[in-house]
Predict the structure.
Amino acid sequence: MALGGEACDSQRMTSSGKTSSTRGDPQLGMEARRTLEQYAAATWRSLVAMTDPTTGLPADNIKKNGTKVTYTTPTNIACLLWSTLAAGELGLICCDEVQGRIARTLATLGKLKRFKGQYFNLYEPASGRKLTVFPPDGSKHDPFLSSVDNGWLSAALIMVRNAFESVPRLAGSAVAILKDIDLGFYYDSGVGHLWNGFWPDKQGFTPEHYDVLNTEARIASYVAIARGQVPPEHYFRLLRTFPPTWLEHKMRPVGVSRRYLGVDVYEGRYRYRDMEIVPTWGGSMFEALMVQLLVPEDIWAPKSWGINHPRYVRAQIEHGLDVARYGCWGFSPSSNPSDPEDGYGEYGVYPLGLNPSGYHCKGVVTPHAAFLALHFAPCQTLANVAKLCKDFHAYDEDLGFYDAVNVNSRVVAKRHLALDQGMIMMAIANSLLTARGAPAGGAADNRLQACFTRGEIEAKIRPLIAQEAFYGEVAV
């Protein structure tokens, strides 16, 4: 099995870990395409293994011994839906199987218990039952409505609707479910942010908002704005960094204030090495780049995300190779390999996060974080995951990449997460479908991403985010 080698026709890795270009989808070499196809096939097998054949709902994760956990989330379900589309586009399954699997999942979604149209954060995959006890330890669980969970599920339903416009039963089912998920339910008009969530039993919202722009919660903002559920100025009320007048700063930001849609926006950046970067909350790849899997932000917003995303990737790579000297990179929330119970930890590059407490990488590398960089640094990504496979055995040829490895102790967290696999499948599909000649310059630069952006997303979000220049007048 090829795990690296001649990755790209148009780029070569240098000794510092940089490529001659970090933007755009390259023309992948034949060996690289074969490698990605093999990764996709194994990743898809793991998703099949963790999916209940009756309900069509995925488990949150499956362990090396085949044990599936007995809970799932709306985001896991979203990952399964778009991964099924990806599997069909990549020829891993036939059209009839794609439709059958998606129909089964949609039928179950239509029956799950909801509150005011919103899905709860935990369900049992085998029955679809709303969980009030957390399965691993039996502790009491207060059912919760998560704005970001419902945002990701809404995004996947839009993809299904658009992909099956000619199949009324599927498109109609997706639309029927989607119409009841009004993300405006979470909108706090007083501050212009989305609440993290809502507790139905307590009849109250969380005390926290999603108030930082560069996080995975941005998908909920995009969907809500595009569907007219929150006003477009919500996008500009989110923080790029904390304003310089705030007392608590991890790092003093640099930047200027500009006005968009009547909102004064402080366009702050952090300095890391020789770069200025708009940080995420915790310094993780997941926060910065999961949304880019569905939205071509680098193309739609060339003076903001088109600069920031490649710099963020470069910063993660340089941190792993040149600063921490791990020999590999890719830092995001993932399993703690050293925890015998597979505890979950928050990992990231500390200087790339706003959180004063901060995420630290602690030697923990997760393959999904590397795949999030595939669009911007294909050669480096393929070389990095090849090293994780060869040197740390972080890959199972039957079920794909394990969740994480501690490169210091060389211990691997041997479980596969639906969230990881969904990100890996989307990243690979975007790359391969573009390499096969999908048209560039349209709604998106590849066919699968276009399943989300076609229609109201591009019409409302593209002109909105194109306005901003995080860095002022700079050469792209």
